[in-house]
Design brief:
about 35% strand, about 230 residues, 14 strands, Immunoglobulin-like, alpha+beta, four-stranded antiparallel sheet
Length: about 230
């Protein structure tokens, strides 16, 4: 069993008697038996609601689109109430089964440490090169919007926006002034990521600042008491 970058657990089960089976199956079967034993002591699981919650939590991050699934009792199906068509053209999987989407995803790092007064400080450094803070999109302009929200006892930092690459003047009657644009690895496109910060703590203070080299730093102080909006 392992967790991917979205925190989703995966179990590997191979053919009995094969080399992979000898390697994976013993721990996987033991895990399944333990889970069954625990489940028998708990209340019944609503598969539809559990699947609906999983999709609404993880699919937006996997496909880079905003969706909200609700159960349609008349048709006995989960439908997307956002109304937009769900597109999965840009999805691929690694050899470990991790979902990879095309386009731009800001890189980030997180540092967490305890303060003398018992609070915890969380610092998130995000690479948002050329992205300007804006709620509304502008033609050929990289933008970013950030907000914090709570879900299942966790506090998250959500980053949404669009990364646009400057291709320069690609059309010109003067051959000497034409610009050749080659892009090997820089990503661009819409992005929507939610960064898990901390569990079961209220926000005491928060601020952000722009650092050199296109880094935006978010600084949070969390205390043990939950705030009213948590």
């Amino acid at each position: 069993m392992y967790k991917d970058q979205y925190g989703v657990c995966h179990l590997v089960l191979a053919s009995e008697g094969s080399e992979a089976g000898k390697y994976y199956n013993q721990t996987t079967v033991k895990f399944l038996k333990d889970r069954i034993a625990v489940t028998e002591c708990k209340k019944k699981l609503n598969i539809v609601k559990a699947f609906q919650k999983f999709c609404n939590t993880h699919l937006p991050k996997m496909i880079g689109q905003e969706i909200q699934l609700e159960f349609d009792e008349k048709n006995s199906a989960l439908v997307n109430t956002k109304g937009n068509e769900i597109k999965i053209d840009g999805i691929a999987w690694t050899s470990l089964g991790e979902v990879v989407t095309s386009g731009f995803k800001p890189n980030y790092s997180i540092r967490t440490h305890s303060l003398d007064d018992g609070c915890q400080e969380v610092i998130v450094d995000v690479e948002v090169i050329d992205c300007k803070r804006s709620k509304e999109p502008k033609p050929n302009t990289s933008r970013i919007k950030w907000e914090t929200f709570s879900n299942d006892g966790y506090r998250y930092l959500r980053l949404t926006g669009e990364k646009v690459l400057d291709r320069g003047a690609t059309e010109s009657k003067d051959q000497k002034n034409q610009v050749e644009f080659i892009n090997y690895s820089r990503g661009e496109g819409m992005f929507d990521i939610s960064i898990s910060l901390i569990k079961n703590k209220g926000v005491k203070s928060s601020k952000s600042e722009e650092l050199p080299c296109g880094i935006t730093r978010f600084m949070f102080i969390f205390e043990d008491s939950l705030d009213e909006n948590f």
